[in-house]
Sequence to fold (216 residues):
Amino acid sequence: MAQIHEIKAESRKDEGKGASRRLRRADFVPAVVYGAGQPPQSIQIFHNTILLAAKNEWFFSSVLDLNIDGKVQKVLVRDWQKHPFKQQMLHMDFLRINENEAVRVNVPLHFLNQEKSPAGKTSGVVISHNLTEVEVSCLPKDLPEFIELDLAALKPGEIVHLSQLKLPKGVEIPALHLGADHDIAVVTANTVKEEVEEAPAEGEAAPAEASKDAKK
Fold:
């Protein structure tokens, strides 16, 4: 069962850029909640609440319990604006969800046991993570916070495709319904060939030395 993550917020009536600037100066993040056939609602969230939550993967990929003035709504983070260089969230958008309708969410991938794999132990093998997250479709109650990929058996030269991911019950990858061309590589273990410069044979001048001799 997915863990419950609650974010506390307050409703607000002030609109516009001036109101948003005042909120930020007061250490609040202006935000909007929309969707589910209801009108958009303007809210404000204490900035430290967002700052702490945003350090976790689940904040951007899990169903959240958004508690607005004591009333809880199920939402997903749909958009956010950060300051270019300050550690500050400027604005957020939350999407209300219907618990009986499937949602599409990008979920992080966690790679396990890479160092223990034959590929990880082989010199000259580069293991590439071509994807760090994957879009899944499922009911909100089935949404995983992340998907684990065990690489313990990965061998040099092998490729792990989307279709090889082990998904929780009720979860699917929409891209796989679009055809084999969309079964892309998630992980590759490629052998890198090192180019070794051959030493000149005995009695044979090195190229640079030969060039100098030719000029004499």
About this structure: The chain has five helices and twelve strands. The two ends are 82 Å apart (CA to CA). Helices lie at 16-25, 47-53, 58-61, 118-121, 207-215.
